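Pasting two entries for a bug report.
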Amino acid sequence: MYFGSLALTEPLALNLITLADEYLLPELKADCESYLSKNLKAANLLNVIKATEAAASEKLKERVVSFLAIHMKDLTKEIDVNLIPNKLLSEAILKSSEVNKSL
């Protein structure tokens, strides 16, 4: 049983999110999603994407798509964007174009 009193780190959150999903621990999954969302950066993006897919986390997926949409130009300098699933890239491009239209 999880009582919400865990000091998360990035490696711990990346591992626990999948276990929380598998063992139906929604509070722990939400804590991991929150931690990873707040600490998302180019350096951990690919690992967060893997964890997002493994845990079927829609909340974290939305955050990743937003992050991609905002930082795509800079990311191409920092990581191999070919490693990002095409579906996420497509969603980020759509989101980016929607944001640009509203400006």
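Entry 2 (this is the one that rendered wrong in the viewer):
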Amino acid sequence: MATRIGIGMEELTSLSCFLDPAVSRRILEAYWQKSGEEPSIFMIKLAILFAGLARTANCLSPDKLEELDDMRADLEHELPPKRWTPLLRRRRETTESRGLWGFQGLA
């Protein structure tokens, strides 16, 4: 999606460049334009992924990481509660069927 919306490959030279809030915001906004009035579950999961990757890789400053977290939270607040219920139910069913952490065969 990044290159489709005009972000050049020269801007994406590292993970920190890709996850920079200015770039991440442009990507998320492009997906939002495609999804309509409210964010899609995919967009929210993508925002969660961006923040998680940045935190795990320790590739952004605390201020930029906070900005990514704020974007994620803003998207979550835009999604009506009725849309969260099926997502949470599926997550609970998946967790219960695979055990607490979702791992199988690690005994």
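Dev reply: Rendering is fixed now. As a check, the viewer should reflect this: The mean pLDDT is 76.
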